[in-house]
Every structure is written in structure tokens, then in C-alpha cells.
Amino acid sequence: MEYAKLSRNELESIKAELEKEYNELKAKGLKLDMSRGKPSKAQLDLSTDLFNMQLSPEEFMIDGIDARNYGTLSGLPSMRRLFADLLGVKYEETFIGGSASLNLMFDLISKAYTHGLLMSEKPWSQLEKVKFLCPAPGYDRHFAISKSFGMEMIYVPINDDGPDMDMVEELVKDPAVKGMWCVPKYSNPCGIIYSDEVIDRIAALKPAAKDFALMWDNAYCVHEFDGEFIPFRDMLTLCRENGNENMVYEFASTSKITFPGAGVSVMATSEKNMEYLLKILTVQTISYDKLNQLKHFKFFKDKQGVLDHMKKHALLMKPKFDVVIEYLDKYVKPYGVAKYNHPKGGYFVSLDTMEGCAKRTHQLVKEAGVVMTGAGATFPYGNDPKDSNLRIAPSLPPIEELKAAMEVLCVSVKLAAVEKLLG
Amino acid sequence: MEYAKLSRNELESIKAELEKEYNELKAKGLKLDMSRGKPSKAQLDLSTDLFNMQLSPEEFMIDGIDARNYGTLSGLPSMRRLFADLLGVKYEETFIGGSASLNLMFDLISKAYTHGLLMSEKPWSQLEKVKFLCPAPGYDRHFAISKSFGMEMIYVPINDDGPDMDMVEELVKDPAVKGMWCVPKYSNPCGIIYSDEVIDRIAALKPAAKDFALMWDNAYCVHEFDGEFIPFRDMLTLCRENGNENMVYEFASTSKITFPGAGVSVMATSEKNMEYLLKILTVQTISYDKLNQLKHFKFFKDKQGVLDHMKKHALLMKPKFDVVIEYLDKYVKPYGVAKYNHPKGGYFVSLDTMEGCAKRTHQLVKEAGVVMTGAGATFPYGNDPKDSNLRIAPSLPPIEELKAAMEVLCVSVKLAAVEKLLG
């Protein structure tokens, strides 16, 4: 029953059926949102006790510090220890930021431009050209940072085990290539985990640029929703073992653990990098919000506390991903018009339509009242060379709404494919 | 009894007395801190109810937004309205940041370097030279930002009514002069309020640089500790009326209203500037901590709520400033070896020793166990041309410790002066 094997007449008839089905769905006047990886209200409610914590004035003292007052730029020691434990890095390698790890990433790139990084010969603003490797499909906000600073973004395809490393190893021979964006665990949007081989090859890179910045966005480090927590290798150690001690900057946050708008973020990098960056950071701010750090620490206590909490998220997330896969398996798979992954963690299902059909599919779902991230958004310059990738973000809508949205998506994927085949 | 009018013999005898007195104080092995404008524990305790607020899941909804989730980059509308009311600016002109307004200032300057400001012909990183006006004595952290970005800092003396405007008006004719740091109300450290005439002249400046950035740090906008709240003119309106709509960036925060380490900051600037900056800010972060904004809004409700709260701070602050002035009046004034202000708000008393005596005085107090901000720190490049300014920050230590510290300071000021007079 694969569409590609059908005759023109058969396709015409299927098209008519799909159009009828689509128009009926459209007539419902739906208003559904599968656009961003936003936790649902039920997930937010899991952390109500964190917000509602009551402390006596004396309980604000922690690590010998009054968490309410100025100071302690690197963050509360207790929270640093907790993040170090979660990421498998050393305490000294951690820096706690505000509510968004994206902010830490932007700031790091910004400092590379204004001050240069530790290993930079000059600030990037003084260079003719700065290039950055953008494995794709990837996180649109990473690419937005590169674009904002006027970098030349170089597309590197992502395979099931991570970025195409043959290509990466070749590209980093160019001294203008200054870094690479990575989401190594449950990558956004592919949901894959980089393989050991890929990780080893990344850690062993020999970039011509001495100040090559590996942007290791470990956003989904504990975000399993299906099965047990999968330990992940510490990239800081691997880079150090490969003589690339100062190459990697790791990022994470509690945005999708506690509150997306009010979590705690962390950057981990070599002690030398940290020492260098702190000289600039101490000019940038007096300290980040230590009360929020205090509350997070008291709420979790330790790594196990975080993992236990993630189990509660998993109970809410898994049924939604099951719906996505169930619909795709049932209504799309038999017709051979799309491929998709089966992630066990993270926030997305990455859907590859038939080549040349992503924009049209997106248009169809949009016109039927379903908001999805724009086609191409997961690629540098918003340019998907095959026009096939769409990102499904099922976390926010309640199950019934998700089912309605998936119904629209499945019909749209098929309709776009048939239109394409009919030329 | 002014030292300058005494004979050498008389001075020698006084010196011996002062040395004896100083050594006795030193022998006590004091450990006192008057270095930074940090609120005391009693002040922090005033906001315990803010931290301990309890909300049901439904109460996180405000302005139609779930404050827990991603989004609403400019900040919660309720909190923006509150800040707009406090500063006398328009709602549309406000942007709520994280816990430190210093961070907003650094970020703005950083954006001027990487992207340029709205009126910039090119990013400042592409200019041969960037100069910045630094009225001094001023806030050391402002100057640290300028220094970090490699600006040439130009010293402008501060008079009792604000910066020397004849000088400022002359200096801004240089197109390389890109901005000026100002703390217009209860200036750090002088404690003065800029006069109407000075404010009018600043608003009417005609800088050669089209992208001149007036950094209007209104850090002490509601920080009266002696007497009623003094309304302050809205610089955004004044600049607009003078055709300088896009020249001014105003900053404030609740750091010294609620929690220094965990307050809410605000930037106010023209709607055109805001529109321009939001395009970069939306790349920099997803949103700042809206839960902290929510708590602050619910704690204060409105401007009057903030002013009422500041009265509680005043009750704790005024006795400390009274001690400082009492000691200076009693133990220093009669000898004609120092001048100082009598602020009614803010966090500092600015002390001018005899010329050439600030560093020596600082050394003496330090060796007797009292930490003060370094001599010269209040000037660009840490270079006080007269070596006379010291900043007294009396808020943190309890009254008894403050008295002990002031005792040391008074003796040290006199001893340094006598040493100087004896040559």
C-alpha cells in the first residue's frame, strides 16, 4: 500500500479521500499547539512544593552564606555539588547561572566576540569570518545565536549515532571554524543519543582553531521518560584525556525538571576556562539568584532526588509520546511517506516527510488550526535541504488535544505526499 | 583647632597621641566590614514573607500567563506596570530582567559592541576607539564594565548638584564619546541628587555620537532613609522632549528593597530602543524568572506598597547613618582634615580626606582590621587625582560594630592628615 508504488489513478482517488478527511478536520476549527517543548500544567504542578517552601530567617544560611544577600558569583556550593554529581563533572568546573541555560550559551558566545575565549588570539569580533558547525536537524535557538552574531553556519547531517564525524573532522581543519553545537543526549529534535564512537571522535578532534568551542548542551541529561536513567559519559574528562581540556563548555538546567521559566542553569568547563571566564563574569553581575538555588537544593537534596522527580515527569510524558508513535505507526507508516524516531527521552519526535513535503505539510496543519515549529526551523538559516523535517512537541497539550492534533498531522503528511507524487 | 593652623611642635605632639590611640584600637584585633552597600540581616528579614509565600497551582496564573512556564520575555505585565509606576515611565518602555540590574547594564554595553545600538552606524567593536564619561566619585562597578570592554574612561568631576556639565557638554562633541554613567538620585557614593538644572542639561545634550548611551542607573530611586519619598523626574520623557528619545537607558532593581541576591531588575528605554533590543534579547534568553516577578508583585501590589516597605528599611538605616555623621562631626570636623556629605538616602557616605591622604587612611584602617572599599575605587582606573575620596558603607554591620569601625576611621583620617602636614 505504499503510495510510491501506486498508479496515478489510484493516487487521484486517495487524494480525494484525504482531502475530504482533511476538510472535515479543518471544519472543526481546532486550536492546538505542538510547537515548543513546553512542559504541561500537570508537570509544573509536580514542583508546587518547591515554590511553596517555607524557611525561617536562619534557614537562609547555607554553606556559611546568607543566600539572600549579594555575592558568591559561582553559585551556592551545595547546588554546584548537586549539578556536578548530575553531570559527572568536578565541583570546581561548575558555574550556576540564572533561569536559562540558553542565556549562558549566548553570553559565552558574546564573550568570545567581545573579549575572546581563554585560548583566543583575539576576540572573534576582530576576525574576518567565524564559522560554526551546526549538526542538523538541531535546536533552532542554537542556530539563532550563531545567526545573530553573523557567523557562517555550516550544515552537518546528523545520523542515528550523532553528527557525521567524517565531515566534522574534515571541517575543523579550517581555522575559521570556531565551534560546534551539540545536544548529545536525546538530541533536539532527533531524540538520539550520541554513540560512544561519535563521542570519542568529538573529544579527540584536533581543530585548527585553538579556541574551538564545543557547545555541549546537555539539556536532556536526566530526561528519560521510558525506562531507567541512562548514565552519560562526562565530556569534560574525555576532552581532558585527549589534550582538549579547554575545548568543551557543557550546559544544563532544571527548566524541564522544575519550572521552565524559573529554574536554575549550569555551565561546566575546565578550571582554567572557568578562572578566565570568572574575571569577566565578575564584571557582568554580582551574583545570580541564590534563593532559587537554595530552594532547588533543599527540594532535591541530591542526584537521586532529581532522578526520583524525573520519574514523575515520565509518567506524564510517556503516554503522550505513545500517542504520537501510535498515530504515526497506524496512519502514516503503512504508506511509506514518512520516517520518524522512537525516542526514550527528551521532548521531541523528529518526523521526516517525503522529500519536498515538509513545508506543504506544515502549511496544511497550520491551516487546520495546529501550530507546529516551522518547517526548516531545525536547520541553519531555516533551510532544510531536503524540505522533509518536522518537529513534533507533544508535551504541552492534554492527551485528547494531542490526539486531535496528530490526526491532523497524519492526514496532512499523507496529503502532501500524494500531491507531491502527482506532481 | 584646625590641624593646618598648628605649629610643627603641636602637630608632633598630636601625632604621638593619635598613634597611641590608633595602636590601642589596632590591638583589639577588630574584624569589621564597611566595604560594600550590603543590606543587613535585619533588612533581609523584612522580606521573609516574600520568600515564604504559598500559592495554589491556580494562583500561578497572572495576566493570562502561567508564570511557571517559558515565555513572556519582557516580563510579567503586572510587574512591568509596577516598575513603570515607580520610575514614572510608560509600561511599554519597561523590560524586566534577572536579579541584577548590573547584568542588564553589562549586557547593553556588550550588545553595543557585538550588534550596535539602535542608532549605531556599526558595532562598537568595529571602532578604533570608544570613550565613556565617568563622573566621579562614582560606582566602581560601572567603571569596571567600561574597563572590561577596553573603553577609554574620561573623568568628569561631580559637584553637589551632579556632574560638571560645562565639561560634559564640551566632551560630547567628540564622536568617540559614546556614553556616560550616572546615578542621579543618592549617587553612589556622594549621596547627592542631581539638580533640575543638571538633569535638564543632560537631557538636552547634543552628542556628536548618534548612539550616545546615557546609562541612567536609578539604583536608589525609592531609597530615602531620612524623610519622605522624593519624587524624581522621568528622564525618558525629558530626553524625548529634547529630541533625544533614544539616548537614555534607565536601570533599577529591588536588590536593596527585597533580596540583594534574588531581587528583580528593570531596564526602561524608548519603545524604539526596546523594539530593537528585543530582537537580540529573544535570541539571548527565553525568559527571565517570572515566578520571582510574581512573588514581588503579590508582595507589594503597587507603588505605595514599595514605599511603605522602604519605610521599614529607613528605620534600620537611619540610625547607622546617624552614627557615621555623629562620629565624623565629633571626631573629625573640628580639625579641618576632611569633608563629607549628609545624605538622606542611598547607601553611602562619601568622605574626602585631606588631599593625598586617602590611600594612607585606607591602609591605616585596614591594618586595624576594618575593611573599606579601596581608596581610588570610586574613580576610573582606580585613580583618584586628589587621593582624597573614601566610601563609607554603614548598612551591613550592627550599630556597635559600626561605632567601633568609625572610631578606627576617625583616628586614621586624623593620623594620615598629621603625617601629611608634617611631610
Distance between the termini of chain A: 19 Å
DSSP strand count of chain A: 15
Structural class of chain A: alpha/beta
Largest beta-sheet details of chain A: 8 strands, mixed
Low-confidence stretches of chain A: none
For the record, the count of structural domains of chain A works out to: 2
Helix content of chain A: 40-55%
Total of DSSP H or I helical runs spanning 4+ residues of chain A: 14
The CATH topology of the largest domain in chain A is what? Answer: Aspartate Aminotransferase, domain 2
CATH architecture of the largest domain in chain A: 3-Layer(aba) Sandwich
Question: How large is the radius of gyration of chain A?
Answer: 23 Å
List the helices and strands and how they pair.
The structure is a homodimer of 423-residue chains.
Chain A: H1 8-26, E1 32-34, H2 41-45, H3 48-51, E2 61-62, E3 65-66, H4 77-87, E4 94-96, H5 101-114, E5 131-136, H6 140-148, E6 152-159, E7 162-163, H7 165-171, E8 177-182, H8 196-203, E9 213-217, H9 235-241, E10 248-253, E11 265-269, H10 271-284, H11 290-300, H12 303-331, E12 338-340, E13 349-353, H13 358-367, E14 370-372, E15 389-392, H14 399-422
Parallel strand pairs in A: 1-14, 5-6, 5-8, 8-9, 9-10
Antiparallel strand pairs in A: 2-3, 4-11, 6-7, 10-11, 12-13, 13-15
